[in-house]
Amino acid sequence: MRIVFKTDYMQDIRPWKDGYQLGLYLLLLGLAVAAPWLIDTFYLGELTNVLIWALAGLGLMVLTGHTGQASLGHAAFLALGCYANIILIEAGVPFLAAFPLAGLITGVIGALIAVPALRLHGIYLAIFTLALSILVDDIIVLTEPWSGGVSGKFAPPINLLGLEIDRWGTPDAFYWLVLGVVVIVTLGYINLLRAPMGRSFIAVRDSEVSAQAMGVDVARTKTISFGLSCMVTGWAGALMGLYAGAFNNETFSVVISIELLMMIVIGGLGSIHGAFLGAIVIGFLPQFLSIAKEYAGALFGGSTVAIPGLEFGVFGMILIVFILFEPMGLYGRWLKIRTWFELFPFYRKDMFKRQKSYLKTERLR
Amino acid sequence: MSLLELDNVTIRFGGLTAVDGLSFSVDEGEVFAIVGPNGAGKSTVFNLISRFYDPDEGTIRFDGHDLLKVRPAGVAAYGVARTFQNIELFDHATVLQNLLVGRHRHRRTSLLSEILFTPSVRRQELESREKVEEIIDFLDLQPYREKMIAGLPYGVRKVVEVARALATEPKLLLLDEPASGLSVEETTDMRWWIDDIRRQMGITVLMVEHDMGLVSSVSDRVLAMADGARLALGTPEEVQSDPAVIEAYLGKAA
Ligand SMILES: Nc1ncnc2c1ncn2[C@@H]1O[C@H](COP(=O)(O)OP(=O)(O)OP(=O)(O)O)[C@@H](O)[C@H]1O
Ligand SMILES: [Mg+2]
Asked: What pTM was estimated for this model as a whole?
């Protein structure tokens, strides 16, 4: 059993509870930085992919997990970030400026789209964003002179302060670049959540009427959230493009949008951890499945032909299991396990049980 | 001096006139109660003051300002805070976070400085925390500070809602049925708290309440309404003995 004694308000304002927790996160960061020496190139590539997905997950988490606005269209913003980044680089803008700009452009466009979109609620917002995701395919085809249309584009090696970085040529450097972006975004996210703006996101998510009564401008808050969400998603898209090396109108399909949303639900809505845990699941699921398939093939003597859509199907099944049995996602499960150990032997079964929610009648509309 | 003034306020929902030419004013420093049968339009009056609805007719003035010119999210900045009849808390946040949202109207920092968590943000957070702690002490919420709202008993939630409203440091506090669903002991606590809110904090209280015991023990003046209009206005005794009020509550037979 571990109890944290609090003697100072700063203990709650600091992002970590105590030295023990800080130590754990520093260790994790240390391991992440040292990864290129610890694992082989193949797995480093996979880890890079997981981090990029985690970044995209962080982007969507701001909007869906913390502000309560479901989006089925975030692949559109991945695409926007990806294309903006490459087009800027091709125009001769150095990567160090092109990359942040790609996110900013995506964020601004996202915020502009948010103004009409966020008047919609629930399922209507989901449909609207889904439409965006479908539309982006056509837009890429229509803007062929810049986007390369159906034949797509290739990501050139990038030059960061004189250092040539390329996903295949210098996987270590590319990994560190991605890690750096993820760490910076995560720190910004943590800061936001312990400051008034982050709390007003949560306020809007949980009760728009009372958020408004507390002086939170609901429409403005949603717009900011959408903008920030798209900015981070844009960065993830830019990195995805560099990682893939080549992309076209079909790279950022609706399926990616849906996968992204499923990922943060499985990871745990409303927590930064959830984005990472979800990304680990989505990143390593294909590996896991192919191993499982080989194993099954050896066991039953069947063929190991690829089953189309298997990954997505298994992923959907995992999602259903989570929604039914663990709505708080992997992170929620982890919290329970951790609390069990921390409180040992005093854990009660109903500790995380929610009180039934009371009828809410006063709605804005 | 009157802090809040409603003049001839009317609002219709389709064919239903929920508030019908209602006028009253609340003086600074008093506890003013609104009573009336279900559907009388009491909560609608609150929602009008909170600017959730625009009245069809009439004016609402607060502290010398025309409240109808204020946008809904701006009302808090003028010093009006409220609770809701059907508790509207941020369920998946802790008590502390809920109260800190109450500090939102005192926010001075920009989005960028918050993302960087600059020293000024840190200072503001410490200030907010100190204010919130005062309220936690005042309402005895210490055991629940870190608890999620979703797991709290009903009675505690009611108190947290009052606490969140107080965290905004309002001039006027609107309480929509603060004692509904509370046990006898909890109602007694609420009675003393309302008294202290007025006396110690100097906050004017406007409340809707069905519990006449609570109403007559804390309020200076009472407005009785039915079908959106005023029935009687005066001290609790005057209103309770008003024939129109008795009729509205007990029907024609009385
Ligand atoms: N947004 C709305 N749309 C339509 N009708 C409404 C709306 N809000 C309130 N009403 C109606 O206005 C009338 C007054 O409602 P209100 O909630 O103000 O009553 P109340 O006095 O608070 O009653 P109670 O004691 O039950 O809380 C009711 O008939 C209600 O149905
Ligand atoms: Mg009511």
From this structure: 0.89
